[in-house]
Write a structure and sequence with these properties.
- The chain folds into three domains: 2-231, Rossmann fold (3-Layer(aba) Sandwich), CATH 3.40.50; 254-331, 2-Layer Sandwich (Uridine Diphospho-n-acetylenolpyruvylglucosamine Reductase, domain 3); 343-475, no CATH class.
- It is an alpha+beta fold and 476 residues long.
- The chain has helices at 2-17, 34-50, 65-82, 92-97, 105-128, 140-153, 157-160, 179-189, 205-220, 224-253, 263-267, 271-283, 294-303, 417-423, 428-431, and strands at residues 25-29, 53-60, 85-90, 132-135, 166-167, 170-171, 260-262, 311-313, 318-322, 326-331, 343-345, 355-359, 362-370, 383-387, 395-398, 405-407, 414-416, 436-439, 442-446, 463-471.
- Helix 6 packs across helix 9 (205-220) and helix 12 packs across helix 13.
- It is globular and about 65 Å long.
- The termini are far apart.
Length: 476
């Protein structure tokens, strides 16, 4: 009976939040552990009801020798028994090649795993012609542990709420389900799963919280995890409201070029909202904004009460100074490149009639047209055509941001935009001035350089986006 109650509760929760609309695709991250196997069995039982298309990906990290290979074999066998397509992807070489000394081995493995999941979801989306959602098996206990981890390291409201239920293509349908419920579910199904011995290694921070901190909290109240889940949901609502208010204040507080914030606009709002506005502002200018923590934000807010000319130095050579207006951002070694204002166009705005946009010293022309495969694809460096149906969000023309990436192979291999610029030997001082045609964080075209393989015209293309760029000096 517990089995059907859990499946119905999770299904209703997915439906209520519209996490995975009916008829769309689900790519399950299947490690072989109890949580992901339970998620797999749930989707196998619910897929026909919601007309979901299921596939699985198992990421083999190459870190546990034969045990890792056994897990991969178990996953392939399980998927075969249920008739679900499964792909095993090894990332051991990728992790070994990562040279970021600031990342732990655990962080590198996580980064490689998420890259694979997103790549495979994009490939699946191309094949089935429907949006694809990446389903991960994080549950209520995982979320409670994450909340404590963030609190211990220092965080704001966003960190205190734990894991988001959905972010981009990633969804977490089990966030309202406890670890005990998952174990009971598998027991009733008589379903085997793999045991990862590293889960007991308390040298990892999260395992230490799991094995030492959580049991003590449950002694205080045996419903501790349930109460933390409720708190996470409430904090999520608060965080979303605060961000909405901060975005509104930011638009009013920043100067025309966006490089200064008005002191008057900031001092008239609560301190917590000040900090959120400043954080949003910095994200527009600081590459790798994840390096900016709560302590940095507090120091910058103190500048509002300091004398004009006082400075605070952030990571990556960025400086925030007290100006006559309020706060100004710049670089230690050179002036901060002035990126033109972002231009965002919805699908309804782009049609057969050409749209002309000014972006800095460049003029960009966009149009959309039906495609029958008989027309010639332009080879010009400054004119490109793209599969318009592959674009999921609004089309934007802007400068680079943290998290931007480009797909570099037909198989879906992605590369961070920063790494692409380094490989192409684009001078650091010129990178912020390169215009990007983007679909959210996915770069469709590094304008004047290369295009993403993901948006290339194929035999399935029915509509194309045509883009042409010229510099003003061409008309001198």
């Amino acid at each position: 009976m517990a089995r059907f109650e859990l499946e119905e509760r999770v299904y209703n929760w997915i439906e209520k939040r519209n996490l995975i609309p009916k008829g769309e695709g689900v790519l399950i991250g299947l490690s072989g552990g109890a949580d992901s196997v339970a998620l797999f069995r749930f989707f196998c039982n619910a897929a026909s009801k919601a007309q979901w298309t299921l596939r699985c990906v198992h990421v083999e990290h190459g870190l546990r020798g034969q045990d890792s290979l056994k897990d991969a074999a178990f996953v392939e066998k399980l998927c075969g028994e249920w008739g679900v397509s499964c792909r095993v992807v090894s990332v051991g070489d990728v992790i070994a090649a990562m040279d970021d000394t600031h990342m732990s081995l655990e962080e590198k493995a996580r980064s490689a795993r998420y890259d694979v999941l997103i790549q495979q979801a994009e490939l699946m989306e191309k094949e089935i012609g429907e949006p694809v959602h990446i389903a991960l098996a994080h549950h209520a206990n995982d979320n409670a542990e994450t909340m404590i981890f963030h609190l211990a390291r220092g965080t704001g409201i966003d960190g205190m709420r734990g894991m988001p239920v959905a972010r981009g293509p990633i969804v977490r349908p089990f966030l309202q389900v406890s670890r005990q419920e998952i174990e009971d579910y598998l027991k009733e199904l008589k379903q085997d799963y793999c045991q990862d011995v590293t889960n007991g290694d308390v040298s990892y921070d999260r395992n230490r919280i799991r094995h030492h901190v959580m049991p003590e909290l449950e002694k205080v109240n045996n419903r501790a995890v349930e109460h933390m889940t409720q708190a996470a949901e409430l904090l999520s609502e608060v965080a979303e409201y605060v961000q909405m208010q901060a975005e509104d204040v930011l638009q009013k507080a920043k100067t025309e070029d966006g490089k200064e914030l008005s002191k008057e606009a900031l001092l008239g709002i609560p301190d917590f909202l000040q900090r959120e506005v400043i954080h949003l502002w910095l994200q527009q200018f600081v590459p790798g904004a994840k390096d900016i923590g709560a302590s940095h934000i507090y120091k910058i807010t103190e500048l509002l009460k300091a004398q004009v000319g006082r400075e605070y130095h952030l990571p990556r050579g960025v400086v925030v100074a007290r100006s006559y207006v309020g706060l100004a951002i710049g670089c230690r070694k050179q002036e901060m490149p002035s990126a033109p204002q972002e231009v965002v166009l919805s699908a309804d705005e782009i049609g057969e009639e050409t749209i002309e946009i000014s972006y800095g010293n460049k003029r960009i022309f966009l149009s959309a047209e039906d495609w029958d495969g008989t027309k010639e694809i332009p080879e010009n460096l400054y004119t490109k055509c793209f599969d318009y149906d592959m674009i999921r969000n609004n089309v934007s023309i802007r400068g680079r941001r943290s998290g931007d990436y480009i797909t570099i192979t037909a198989e879906g291999t992605r590369k961070r935009l920063q790494d692409y610029f380094v490989n192409e030997k684009v001078p650091a001082e010129k990178r912020d001035g390169v215009p990007l045609l983007c679909d959210d964080s996915h770069v469709i075209w590094v304008m004047g350089y290369r295009i993403s393989e993901h948006y290339k015209i194929s035999e399935k293309t029915k509509k194309v986006l045509r883009v042409h760029m010229i510099e003003e000096k061409e008309h001198e």
